[in-house]
Design brief:
- The chain is of the alpha/beta class.
- It is built from 7 helices and 8 strands; from the N terminus they run ββααβαβαβαββααβ.
- It has helices at residues 54-59, 62-70, 92-110, 128-141, 156-173, 213-220, 234-249; strands spanning 8-10, 46-51, 74-81, 113-119, 145-148, 188-192, 205-208, 254-258.
- α3 packs antiparallel against α6 and α4 packs across α5.
Length: 271
Amino acid sequence: MEPRNRRSFLKDLGLGTTAFSIAGEQEKSMPGRPTVGGEETAISSTLMTIAAHPGDAFFAMGAPVANQIHHGGHGVFVSLSLGEKGSATIPPGEYGALQREATVRAAQMLGAQAEFLAYPDGQIPINDEASLAVCDMIREYQPAIVVTHWRGSWHKDHRACYEIVDRAIFYASLPAFTRKQPAHRVKKLFFAENWEDAEDFRPDTYLDISAVFERWTEACAVFPMWRGENGFRYDDYYRSLARANGCIGNFEYAAALMSPAEQLMRRVPSL
């Protein structure tokens, strides 16, 4: 099999372009699961990122949101915590307020919305309370596409976010599961490339972000940590990564995403 047949090189997610699985064939999802690919999504659809911390939401997942909005869609950033313990010099309460302010401002720069659940940084719980809170967000905003953390992370909050989103998508899709808002089925789920979530991360989709690269990085620059003030050079890393992924995707800049193939029963239509 040639390398190009093993990957999906897409100019956008769900904007009139059909996404294909690695296997090159459409797969049917189980109830409560998004499809891996093969389904078209309306150009005006909403893309929601669900991240453990605001920085993750914008640095690793913000470019797909910017791209969705650029093509006429909508974007929502959901942060499970404020990342308030991310500074070695600023007290958590003060730093959390700065993070919230930066998130709202960055979202406005992209034309997106920002939502917060504000669980304690470093202590995001894996339970039904958190999963139902995210379920309610999904039902309220009705995203066609969700981008979140991959489970292969050394960061416990990121692993917790993966588990919470997995449950929340399932809960949100069930009509018999009564909540304030009616059921909603997420059509596509992707995991973002994050330097903290690299274990077994195997991208299968390369999203062209060339048209929104500058706008996205300008929004990221609202966060002090983007400039390396917390010890990691996020600016250099994610700019370089976008260029490298662009080389693979044959674009100027690209974001690499992974489809949840492991969550699907690929050879049976139902149980």
